[in-house]
Design brief:
This protein is an all-beta fold and 116 residues long. 0% of the residues lie in helices and 53% in strands.
Amino acid sequence: QVHVVESGGGLVQAGGSLRLSCAASGRTFSMCAMGWFRQAPGKEREFVARITGSGGVASYADSVKGRLTISRDNAKNTVYLQMNSLKPDDTAIYYCNVDCPIVNYWGQGTQVTVSS
């Protein structure tokens, strides 16, 4: 059975930093892209960042470019999201997505709150 578990969320002041982690288990993920989405109160879930299975190519939403960095450690089946220069608009539940051929997996989410 596949498990996807996020961690690292919390409360931070504007301008601060957080590092989110997402650990996946239950199968081989080297062929799977991994990424992050977020959902703010009253809004739809939106794409944040994605990284290919090899870790060679990363893509970002325009709203986070230059502030958030995605990386992965395939030995640990873990993807990270380093979040710097955080803004109140970054407040949301952050969800990890594992995009494998044919099937997609989601974590339960971790709350990030940025105070002004």
